[in-house]
Fold:
Amino acid sequence: AQSVAQPEDQVNVAEGNPLTVKCTYSVSGNPYLFWYVQYPNRGLQFLLKYITGDNLVKGSYGFEAEFNKSQTSFHLKKPSALVSDSALYFCAVRDLLMTTDSWGKFQFGAGTQVVVTP
Amino acid sequence: NAGVTQTPKFQVLKTGQSMTLQCAQDMNHNSMYWYRQDPGMGLRLIYYSASEGTTDKGEVPNGYNVSRLNKREFSLRLESAAPSQTSVYFCASSEAQPGPEQFFGPGTRLTVL
Structure:
């Protein structure tokens, strides 16, 4: 079975400061990992993904994420937050192990609300 | 290129009424999904269709049925709506192989009284 945990319901950061949103995962095989952002009354938008290769993944809007296999983590980061980054962020995992029931299905975390203050 | 579209955007039902949520994608994706989003619970998978002609249950399928009408369209039906089905429903699509990301529709906000 696969699972995703986002330990923080909300992250507060001042504009211009670094932003980190935490995500840990559990899968049977190797993971595909994703970050999405949701603005109010909108659908989810893809930010970035890790499939294989470099552990540091760069995505849209200046976001990046670091895959850490030993800690089973995939934290989202931005060096300098903007007020417009205020939104709900979701981490998701997809199991590569094709023999499990979870193959093909995405498992989403509960979401982390990011609030960036001017 | 509209991406993933959903209708309706909003709906209010009475307990016991039925309705169908429509979803269509124009990206030629093989896989399509229905999720519900509830506060503090993230997105939970209701049903998915790995390819045209196939459907499978997700995490919370009870009270719902789906139809993969063709490659473009994937509908979600509530046969007898219950207040517990009050939620925001999202349709998504992706390529069949693991790896590609999902693309989401704008959502349907459903209230069951």
Notes: The first strand of chain A starts at residue 3 and ends at 5. Chain A has no helices and twelve strands.
